[in-house]
């Protein structure tokens, strides 16, 4: 029963931080993402069944679960790439509804990194990064390009600025995608399986960038299968199955002492 | 080792054993190339001499002298409805075809893009209508459509002395549409010189405004500014254009200079150009074949290309030297050109650049008709125009739709995720990528449209085919006219292809 209390405490935000980042107390931080009873259907198939969770400022949350469990659908609902049909999603105090202005506002505050990178192939790396600041933030071209160069420096590929995405390796492309998302100076970063399309030797370079981003205090929500990353960086892990949240807890709790049978089964399969 | 090759022979015992000629890859390849060339040249020679002999035997004259003779032709419309020579008549036909093709391409593209976007619209009704448009128009033969539009337009009221809707200004009847026309007058060329300067100024202003935008990020509307500059020059030019009268003596001097030049000069220039071009081509070709460390490896094909380029240059030099007529023609037409420009600038200072005329209606005999003043769009033109534009717009619409659908969904999502609006994402992300898919088939549609204008013959629009047919009916010179047709369509189509390919190469995605 104590474990159950632990989970509820985590959900209400009284937990005192992840194992690897112990000492972080986010209980007084403000709520960045609030989901209450979020449901979504594709035809007859229910992809999300009343998902509720709150993510604090500067918190790093990793979402785990077998494929088809609704992880990606959920994360895509948070910047309205998918529309939820029931429930409430509030991002930094702005509710996602049919109000186009709210959607715009949320999207300009939330950065997203995709599994397939989705870089713009007809634009140079520098223009990929500076496009949105120029057209959405109305920055001058010089300023936006300076910022793009600084961000490419941050993700470790300043020398690739004049190349086209097609000329880069997968890992480099994903780092450009991260720089592109950061260029809008978002308050929240969403990662939808950022390393799943990468060759093994490139995964580390992307995870390193994400780790540094987490250390810098970015609020992050990460859908991934990288257990090492989850253990090391996450403040909290949310385990999903069949469109529902099954278990929530610190990495310590989750990997060493999971409560739910389904979580145990999942862990035994991936850690075997 | 039963079949030692050249390379292997040095390391094996069969050093002395040479490869027989018929098994030597190099010999076989060269023989085949030379044989093919000889065969092609021989066939062409045979066909040409045979055709010549047969035509002489049947007493068919394939000369082009009819181009110089006055024809008995009156054209329904064009830059000159009573051409003085057969050549002039065909030229009017060509201009009419090009006019139809250019106007048709512009409007078919605009309409096609709208149709393509409409087929992807979120609005059910618009989507349905666009589908009906496409499916109806592309499934009815173009000839049928042209005749249909013609017969619909032909039921408009007959023209008479008080045809409206605004008599003396705008006339609509079964003879077509007539409206006032602005045309260029004597002072135009001086005014055009002002506009040339204005164009340079507008270009400079645009660049300045773009720089300013890049520095400050503010919206500096460079296009509006450059158009404004042009407009200012256009207005001012209406008053100051006589200032450019000084060009007249300069043009005369250039013409006299060209007259006094020896024929040797163009001969030398032509030969030098041919040799230099061939030399540059070969040099660049060799540079392209050289590897990064400077190693040069040429295949047999490469040798062929180099040799044939050299032969072509040699032939060009021979032509330039022995065909003195070419060189004197270049000098003469150059001097003629400058004399013509000289006369264009030889005008009274008060001459206006533009003039205007209202359409009129004349009744010389039993039937009223539109006079020569004013701008008239005939029913024939309208029928062909609607035909090719509507028909091609259906195909272009499908091409545009396909091109947009070919851009992966992830691109739209990424654009939304970084906060771009729908219109921004369409302009900066979707269309630039779709255009790569759209361009090659779009070029094909332009070629189709241009060739399809030859269906104008069905409704009597004076295009090159219709005029040509009248010419050979009168003169009996079928083959020469058909040859001119083919050369004309070939040249037009190749020009379109070159332009489209140029953009195609420029738009290519860079990958690895």
Structural description of this entry:
The complex is a heterodimer of chains A (272) and B (512). Chain A has 272 residues and is α/β, with parallel strands linked by helices. Chain A is 39% helix and 23% strand. Chain A has ten helices and ten strands. Chain A has helices at residues 2-11, 71-78, 100-109, 125-135, 141-154, 170-182, 200-215, 227-233, 251-256, 261-271; strands at residues 31-42, 45-56, 60-64, 86-91, 94-95, 110-113, 188-192, 219-223, 236-241, 244-249. Chain A has a six-stranded mixed β-sheet, with helices on both faces. In chain A, strand 7 (188-192), helix 7 and strand 8 form a beta-alpha-beta unit. In chain A, helix 4 (125-135) packs across helix 5, helix 4 (125-135) runs parallel beside helix 6 (170-182) and helix 5 crosses helix 6. The longest helix of chain A is centred in the last third of the chain and has 16 residues, at 200-215. The model of chain A is unreliable at 1-20 (pLDDT under 50). The longest helix of chain B is centred in the N-terminal third of the chain and has 34 residues, at 86-119. Chain B contains 16 helices and eight strands. Chain B has three domains: 3-57; 68-180 and 374-507, MetI-like (MetI-like fold, Orthogonal Bundle), CATH 1.10.3720.10; 188-354, no CATH class. In chain B, 24% of the residues are buried. Chain B has a four-stranded antiparallel β-sheet with strand order 1-2-3-8. A two-stranded antiparallel sheet of chain B has the order 4-5. Chain B has 512 residues and is mainly α. Mean pLDDT of chain B is 84; it is low at 1-10. In chain B, 66% of the residues lie in helices and 5% in strands. Chains A and B meet through helix 3, strand 6, helix 4, helix 5 and helix 6 of A and helix 6, helix 13 and helix 14 of B.
């Amino acid at each position: 029963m104590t474990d159950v209390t632990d989970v509820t405490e985590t959900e209400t935000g009284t937990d005192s931080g992840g194992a690897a980042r112990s000492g972080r107390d986010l209980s007084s931080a403000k709520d960045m993402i609030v989901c209450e009873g979020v449901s979504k259907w594709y035809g007859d198939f229910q992809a999300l069944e009343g998902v509720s969770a709150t993510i604090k400022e500067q918190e790093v949350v990793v979402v785990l679960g077998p494929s088809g469990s609704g992880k990606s659908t959920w994360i895509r609902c948070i910047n309205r790439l998918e529309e939820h049909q029931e429930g409430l999603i509030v991002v930094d105090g702005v509710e996602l509804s049919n109000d186009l202005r709210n959607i715009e506002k949320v999207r300009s505050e939330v950065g997203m990194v995709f599994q397939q990178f989705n870089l713009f192939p007809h634009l140079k790396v520098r223009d990929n990064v500076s496009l949105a600041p120029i057209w959405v933030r109305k920055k001058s071209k010089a300023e936006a390009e300076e910022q793009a160069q600084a961000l490419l420096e941050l993700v470790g590929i300043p020398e690739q600025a004049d190349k086209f995405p097609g000329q880069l390796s997968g890992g480099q492309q994903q780092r450009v995608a991260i720089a592109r998302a950061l260029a809008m100076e978002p308050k929240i970063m969403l990662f939808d399986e950022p390393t799943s399309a990468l060759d093994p030797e490139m995964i580390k370079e992307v995870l390193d960038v994400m780790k540094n981003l987490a250390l810098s205090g970015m609020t992050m929500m990460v859908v991934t299968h990288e257990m090492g990353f989850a253990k090391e960086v996450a403040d909290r892990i949310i385990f999903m199955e069949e469109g529902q949240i099954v278990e929530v807890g610190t990495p310590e709790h989750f990997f060493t002492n999971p409560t739910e049978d389904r979580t145990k089964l999942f862990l035994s399969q991936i850690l075997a | 080792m039963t079949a030692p090759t050249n390379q292997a022979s040095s390391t094996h015992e069969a050093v002395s054993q040479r490869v027989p000629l018929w098994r030597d890859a190099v010999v076989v390849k060269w023989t085949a190339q030379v044989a093919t060339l000889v065969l092609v040249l021989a066939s062409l020679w045979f066909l040409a001499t045979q055709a010549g002999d047969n035509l002489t035997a049947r007493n068919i004259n394939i000369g082009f002298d009819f181009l110089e003779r006055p024809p008995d032709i009156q054209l329904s419309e064009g830059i000159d409805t009573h051409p003085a020579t057969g050549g002039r008549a065909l030229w009017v036909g060509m201009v009419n075809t090009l006019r139809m093709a250019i106007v048709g391409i512009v409007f078919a593209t605009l309409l096609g893009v709208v149709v393509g976007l409409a087929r992807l619209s979120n609005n059910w009704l618009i989507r349905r209508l666009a589908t009906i448009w496409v499916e109806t128009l592309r499934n009815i033969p173009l000839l049928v459509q042209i005749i249909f539009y013609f017969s619909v337009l032909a039921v408009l009221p007959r023209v008479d002395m008080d045809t409206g809707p605004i008599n003396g200004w705008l006339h609509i009847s079964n003879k077509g549409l007539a409206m006032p026309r602005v045309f260029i007058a004597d002072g135009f060329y001086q005014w055009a010189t002002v506009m040339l300067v204005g164009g340079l100024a507008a270009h400079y202003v645009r660049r300045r405004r773009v720089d300013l935008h890049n520095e400050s990020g503010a919206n500096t509307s460079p296009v509006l500014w450059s158009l404004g500059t042009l407009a200012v020059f256009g207005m001012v030019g209406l008053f100051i254009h006589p200032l450019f009268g000084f060009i007249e003596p300069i043009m005369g001097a250039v013409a006299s200079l060209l007259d006094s030049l020896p024929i040797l000069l163009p001969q030398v220039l032509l030969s030098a150009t041919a040799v230099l071009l061939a030399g540059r081509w070969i040099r660049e070709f060799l540079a392209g074949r050289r590897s990064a460390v400077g190693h040069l490896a040429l295949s047999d094909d490469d040798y062929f290309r180099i040799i044939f380029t050299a032969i072509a240059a040699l032939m060009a030099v021979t032509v330039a030297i022995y065909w003195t007529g070419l060189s004197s023609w270049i000098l003469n037409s150059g001097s003629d050109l400058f004399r013509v420009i000289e006369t264009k600038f030889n005008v009274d200072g008060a001459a206006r650049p533009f003039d205007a005329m209202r359409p009129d209606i004349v009744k010389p005999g039993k039937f009223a008709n539109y006079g020569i003043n004013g701008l008239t769009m005939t029913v024939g033109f309208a029928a062909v125009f609607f035909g090719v534009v509507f028909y091609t717009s259906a195909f272009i619409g499908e091409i545009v739709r396909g091109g947009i659908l070919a851009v992966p969904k992830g691109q739209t999502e990424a654009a939304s995720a970084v906060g771009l609006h729908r219109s921004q994402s369409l302009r900066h992300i979707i269309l630039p990528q779709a255009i790569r898919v759209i361009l090659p088939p779009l070029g094909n549609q332009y070629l189709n449209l241009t060739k399809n204008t030859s269906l104008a013959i069905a409704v009597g629009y004076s295009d090159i085919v219709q005029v040509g047919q009248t010419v050979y009916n009168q003169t009996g010179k079928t083959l020469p006219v058909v040859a001119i047709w083919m050369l004309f369509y070939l040249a037009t189509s190749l020009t379109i292809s070159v332009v489209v390919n140029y953009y195609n190469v420029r738009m290519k995605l860079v990958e690895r």
